[in-house]
């Protein structure tokens, strides 16, 4: 009887899983190939085994002569005595002379049939075990491969999610950095505007100090003095507003920097996680560096879920977007305030200058006999003409900003679908167009006023020669000292944004 040997059993010394009848056979030989191949099965190795015979009842008989040794035999044979006479008989009659017979032919045949049946049963069971093992190996291999593919797919999805949020955070960070740079420029503009208010305030105060030196009836609380006081109050109020705006901008820059740090920190973590997951996604059964880490599946270092993870990035992006909105609104407010301050300062400056001019015109009208008054009047006419040219130039300068704003509105009107949003940019562009139109209308009115004033100066030039003698001191203070300071500092070129 021989057992089939599988290739892995010779290397791993696996035991045979089969039911045995009378104990395991004792191995006495080595593996060898059959001398010739059989047509019904391939040539393979077998083990040579020694079959242990069944246990038998030993023959015991006190009458056996152990010293009897027939001729031609090297060992003592078993002798069968005559039960009647006690003498030796012929060995061929030994079966009839024994005490009893061991087995019958039927028992011998039945024993063989049972042995064959047991062998068939053990072989069938062995084949079943082998088939079950092969099926189990295939199932486990398929399950393992499927699990590995599913894990790789999940890692790919995770890499996609991380890449998406990384790109969103990077885009938001770039927008925030650009917004912070614009807000920094706005802060510099506010600081410059705040510094530019000092010279006009100093000049207005100097004008008030100079006018205090007038004597007699000329020490009058006229429109020029009222305009100077209004101008001083307006400049101080403008300084207060710009200082408050500068503090808000400084605080907003700090908030934007905090949001920027949060985004950079999240992007850094995303980059690190993306690198780790990419390496894990590229690992396979033949990769270097793979190793056993016992119990790692029981260690759970996670601190978030997919919902809280994406919610954290979304919160950071929303926070950054909120800070950008605040910064954009603050820039808009700063631009509006700077323009309003520049307009108010220019208006007060112009009103004071006009008041000075009107007061000088009044004094020159009283000093019609002096030729110098005529010269000053001509100079004033020249200044008004220059002022008219400046107004015309200012009106022409508004054309390009108007074109830019209207071109932006027209270009944004071609946005597709839901992108046609009535956002802050659209509202600001509409407001810009309206502001420029109002500015141009105001400049046109100022131009009409300047042209009208120019005509008035031409008509009153001859009337201002007779009264200059009596007003020489006041005229010197107003035109030489006060207006000299104001002409030496052209506020329209300094406060211009």
SSE arrangement:
Elements: H1 7-12, E1 26-33, E2 45-50, H2 94-97, H3 105-196, H4 198-211, H5 223-282, H6 306-366, H7 371-397, H8 399-412, H9 424-460, H10 472-488, H11 491-494
Antiparallel strand pairs: 1-2
Helix pairs in contact: 3-5, 3-6, 4-5, 4-10, 5-6, 6-7, 6-10, 7-9, 8-9
Provide structural commentary:
The protein is built from eleven helices and two strands. A two-stranded antiparallel sheet has the order 1-2. With 497 residues, the chain is mostly helical. α4 packs antiparallel against α5, α6 runs antiparallel to α7 and α6 packs antiparallel against α10. The chain has two domains: 68 residues; 313 residues. Belongs to the tektin family. InterPro entries: Tektin-like, Tektins. It is found in: Cytoplasm, Cytoskeleton, Cilium axoneme. This is Tektin.
Keywords:
497 residues, mainly alpha, 2 domains, rod-shaped, disordered N terminus, flagellum
What separation lies between the terminal Cα atoms?
Answer: 110 Å
Mean pLDDT reading? 78
| Rg, Å, rounded | 58 Å
Strands across the major sheet, in which order? 1-2
Unreliable residue stretches: 1-49, 56-69
Summarize the biggest pleated sheet.
2 strands, antiparallel
User: How much β-strand is present in the residues?
Assistant: under 5%
**Count the helices. How many?**
11
The gross shape turns out to be: rod-shaped
- The SSE string, one letter per element, is HEEHHHHHHHHHH
- Overall strand count: 2
Structural class: mainly alpha
Number of domains: 2
Helix content: 55-70%
What quaternary form is this?
single chain
């Amino acid at each position: 009887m021989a057992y089939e040997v599988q290739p892995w059993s010779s290397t791993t010394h696996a035991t045979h899983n089969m039911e045995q009848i009378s104990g395991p056979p004792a191995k006495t030989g080595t593996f060898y190939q059959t001398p010739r191949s059989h047509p019904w099965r391939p040539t393979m190795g077998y083990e040579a085994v020694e079959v242990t015979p069944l246990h038998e009842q030993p023959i015991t008989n006190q009458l056996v002569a152990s010293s009897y040794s027939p001729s031609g035999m090297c060992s003592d044979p078993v002798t069968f005595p005559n039960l009647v006479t006690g003498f030796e008989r012929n060995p061929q009659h030994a079966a009839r002379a024994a005490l009893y017979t061991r087995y019958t032919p039927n028992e011998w045949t039945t024993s063989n049939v049972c042995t064959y049946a047991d062998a068939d049963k053990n072989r069938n069971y062995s084949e079943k075990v082998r088939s079950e093992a092969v099926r189990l190996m295939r199932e486990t291999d398929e399950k393992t491969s499927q699990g590995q593919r599913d894990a790789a797919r999940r890692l790919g999805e995770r890499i996609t999610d991380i890449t998406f949020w990384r790109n969103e955070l990077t885009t938001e960070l770039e927008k925030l950095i650009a917004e912070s740079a614009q807000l920094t420029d706005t802060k510099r503009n506010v600081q410059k505007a705040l510094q530019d208010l000092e010279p006009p305030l100093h000049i207005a105060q100097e004008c008030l100090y100079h006018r205090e030196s007038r004597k007699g009836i000329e020490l009058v609380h006229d429109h020029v003095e009222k305009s100077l006081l209004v101008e001083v109050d307006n400049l101080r109020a403008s300084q207060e507003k710009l200082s408050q705006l500068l503090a808000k901008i400084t605080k907003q820059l700090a908030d934007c920097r905090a949001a920027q740090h949060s985004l950079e920190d999240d992007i850094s973590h995303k980059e690190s996680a993306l690198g780790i997951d990419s390496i894990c996604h590229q690992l396979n059964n033949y990769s270097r560096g793979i190793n056993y880490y016992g119990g790692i599946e029981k260690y759970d270092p996670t601190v978030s879920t997919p919902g809280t993870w994406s919610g954290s990035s979304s919160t950071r992006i929303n926070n950054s977007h909120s800070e950008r909105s605040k910064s954009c609104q603050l820039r808009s407010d700063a631009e509006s305030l700077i323009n309003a301050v520049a307009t108010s300062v220019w208006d007060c400056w112009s009103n004071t200058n006009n008041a000075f001019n009107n007061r000088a015109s009044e004094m020159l009208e009283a000093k019609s006999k002096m030729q110098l008054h005529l010269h000053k009047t001509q100079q004033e006419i020249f200044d008004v003409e220059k002022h008219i040219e400046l107004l015309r130039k200012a009106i022409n300068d508004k054309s390009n900003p108007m074109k830019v704003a209207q071109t932006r509105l027209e270009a944004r009107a071609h946005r597709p679908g839901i992108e046609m949003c009535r956002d802050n940019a659209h509202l600001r562009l509409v407001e810009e167009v309206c502001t420029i139109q109002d500015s141009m209308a105001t400049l046109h009115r100022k131009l009409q006023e300047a042209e009208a004033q120019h005509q008035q100066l031409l008509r009153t030039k001859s009337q201002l020669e007779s009264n200059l003698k009596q007003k020489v001191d006041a005229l010197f203070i107003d035109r030489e000292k006060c207006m000299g300071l104001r002409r030496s500092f052209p506020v329209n070129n300094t406060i211009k944004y």
